[in-house]
Write a structure and sequence with these properties.
The chain is of the alpha/beta class. It has 2 domains: 16-64, no CATH class; 74-150, Ribosomal Protein L15, Chain: K, domain 2, CATH 3.100.10.10. It is built from 4 helices and 5 strands, in the order H-E-H-H-E-E-E-H-E. The protein has helices at 56-59, 78-87, 98-104, 135-143, and strands at residues 74-77, 114-117, 127-130, 132-133, 147-150. It has a 3-stranded parallel sheet with strand order 1-2-4. Strands 3-5 form a two-stranded parallel ribbon. The longest helix has 10 residues, at 78-87.
């Protein structure tokens, strides 16, 4: 087999229909658009129009608000951090920070910081310097002999 001999299987592709090319083609005259009216014309966009009735997207109330300066945190469970320590990706002697977790591949993007959550078990004594931590996570870290330092003004929840 040669590169110049490669082609699709028979029937894998279909030639496009050229509309509006005479009545004999079967797609002539109206070109598959039906007969007359606004939708038969070109440049028509009436997607949400309901014949003058108030459209659904305007009848329903607006809801919610996107805070423009919202803080985006990575959420990491204690069990995931313990796995990384056992695998040798995190050093128990250095503090666990956003940058350390990013370098270890635990978080994919640095974002605005890290929040530690209490799912899983922590057996290693670690010191954390993070943006936030849940109450159960703080208890588990202190139970293992570690410490938590919260950075910035992120509320503890």
């Amino acid at each position: 087999m040669k590169l110049n001999e490669i082609r699709d299987n028979e029937g894998a592709t279909k030639n496009r229909m050229r509309v509006g090319r005479g009545i004999g083609s079967g797609k002539g005259k109206t070109g598959g658009r039906g007969v007359k009216g606004q939708k038969a014309r070109t440049g028509v966009s009436i997607k949400g129009f309901e014949g003058g009735q108030m459209p659904l997207h305007r009848r329903l109330p607006k809801r919610g608000f996107n805070k423009p300066n919202a803080i985006e945190l990575n959420e990491v469970n204690l069990g995931r951090i313990q796995q990384a320590v056992e695998a040798g990706k995190l050093d128990a002697g250095t503090p666990v920070t956003n940058e350390a977790l990013f370098a270890a591949g635990i978080v994919s993007k640095p974002r605005d910081g890290v929040k530690i959550l209490g799912v899983g078990e922590l057996k290693t004594k670690l010191s954390f310097q993070v943006a936030g931590a849940s109450k159960s996570a703080v208890e588990a870290i202190e139970k293992a002999g570690g410490s938590v330092t919260l950075l910035g003004a992120v509320a503890q929840a």
